[in-house]
Structure formats: structure tokens, C-alpha cells
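call fold(seq) -> C-alpha cells
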Amino acid sequence: MAFFVKRFEEINKDMVQECGGKASHLGELTHLGLNVPRGFCVLAKAFSSHLKGNQLEEQIGNIALTIDYEIFEDLEEKTGQIRKLIADAPMPQEIEQEIVESYGSLSGGGQDPFVAVRSSVAVKDSPISSFPGMMDTFHYIQGAKNVVDKVKECWGSVWSGRAAFARHSKEIEHAKAIIAPTVQLMVNSDVAGVLFTVNPVSGSKDDIVIEANWGLGESVVCGKCICDFYTADKNLLCIKVKKIAKKRQTFMQAKGGGTEWVEVEPEKVDKATLTETQVEELCRLACLIEGHYSYPQDIEWAYEKGVLYVLQARRAKIGGE
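ret:
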């Protein structure tokens, strides 16, 4: 039995302190029978063991004490030093072995699969289970060694300048940060995006709001692209408002792995990303997940060859929350 790794099938929503917010909810959604790409979580205790095994805790603490949060350059330089310490240190063999074996199980005995390595976070003894956009995500990673390296980079991203500043401003002790990276089969999406089970602008609980773009959902969540916008009636599961944008850029797989920004094909610039049937399917998904959790949801989703996948779900922030 693995000690540092758990498959999504072994995880549920109550394991935030062990697995972080993202992984705990991916496990919960898997138990609901939703189409979640297979994957596993490298548990929070693996990061702690990495730090202890390489005697990094004191070094990191000493650097952290010298950070001047009022000077951007100092914050970036010092947090960069910490990230380098974490990434350069050798991963304890027992942790690496479990990651390599778990990655191998995703292939089904075939070619090494492409995976996404994403940060799953929380704060010890706190209800906080996400820091959206503050830690690293890596797409189209292939090969066990590369996965191990990206897990270390994910660990290091708990010390991104943004994350360190956020903890400092909220008076959260750095040592209370939990990070438990997820490794998940890559969805090579044709269209992807986010949806909210409550209108984030008006606060209407009768609305489902969907944003979509071609390619990976990263082009939507990063806020850099103009995307299609749909408002649907939660009760009737039909479109109320549809705004089709001129979609000039998207985020897609680069040759040989990794990702790149590309220009949208001319015939797709003005074309709607979603059909009415797909909007209805997304609305049904939204209602099911919100009903299970009994609070508003922020959901990341993707379609590959017409098949809907759920990539993430978390409590939606409404209004001034």
C-alpha cells in the first residue's frame, strides 16, 4: 500500500488537510461517478518529508525572515531562492518510487501518457482550501522523470511571490501551507472553460454562467482571452443570454509536449464554442455538483471529441466573499 500517494478513488472531500482542496474534491467527484480524468495525489506529508530529508526547513525559514514584502524585487528574489532549494534537492527515494509507479499505472501498460501536474493546496487547521492562480500548473508532461521534476516544481510554487505575499497579508504562518500536487491524465480538449452555479455578478441563484474558449481552459481562467459567455436558466436548463466573442487566441499543446499560445483558426474566431445540447449538459452537471455540496460551485470542465470531463470543482466566491 502506498504511503505518500493516493489515487482519486481513495480520496474524498473530507481529506483537505491531507490532500489539499483540489485533490479532495476530485476524489469526491470521482465517487459521484462523474467523468473525472484518472489520476492521483502526492500527499502533503510527502512535501514535509522532502523538506526534512534534505534539511531545508531551517534554511527556508531563515530566508523567509529576511523578506521585505514592501519591495517587489526583494520578495521575488528571496522566494526564488526558496523555490530553487526545493526543486534542486533530491526527492527521497521512497516518494519518487511511489510517484513513478502511480504514473506507470495511468498508462495501462502502453506508451507513457501525457498528464497535467497541478497544485492542490490548503492551510493547516483552517477552512482555506484554495489559492486560485497563485501556484503552478503544468500541462502535457510525459515520462516518469519529468513528472517527478514537475511535482518538485509544484512544491516550490507554494513559495511563489504571489502565494507568499498572500499568506503574509492574511497573517497566515508560512509553515501552515499545505501542498499536495495532483497528477492527472491530460484532456486534449477541443473546447473548455469554467461555469458558476450562481451568477457571480448579480448573485442570482437561478442563473448558471458559462465561459468557454477553444483549446485548454487555461485560456479562460487566466483572464487573458476574450471568451464566449453564456447565461442559462438553472430551472429550465436553457440559454438566456449568449455572447459569442471574437476568439483570437487560445492555449494548446505544443509539439513534443508542453503548451503554447496559438492563433485561433479563422473559421473558428466567430463560431460558437458550445451547442445548445452541450450547454444543457453543462447545466445538468452544475446542478448535480451544487446539489451534492449544497453550496455554490465554481467548476472547470472540458470537451474532448464531444465527451465532457470534469477537471475541478470548488466553492464559488459570490459578491464580497
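The chain has two domains: 5-185, 191-315.
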